[in-house]
Amino acid sequence: MTLAEAVRHRLLALMEEKHFSQYDFYLKGGIPKATASQILSGSRSGRVALKTLYEMIAAMGVSLSEFFTDPIFDELSD
What we know:
The chain is an all-alpha fold. The protein is built from 5 helices and no strands.
C-alpha cells in the first residue's frame, strides 16, 4: 500500500468511526467539499498537502501523531 492509499484509508476509517461526512469537513474545518472529495476518492494522484491533511484530521478532533500511529502505516510500500 502506498502512503497516499494509507492516508485515504485512514481518513475514511476515522470518518466512519466519528460519523463524519465530507460536508462536515467544510462546516468544521473550512475544507471545500470538492477538495475533500478528491482526496477521499484518490483522484488527487497521491498529492495531499500536509496543511490540508492537518485541517481535515483536526476537524475530526484527531492529532497528527494519533493519525499516523495507526498500524496501516506499518504496511507501506514504494
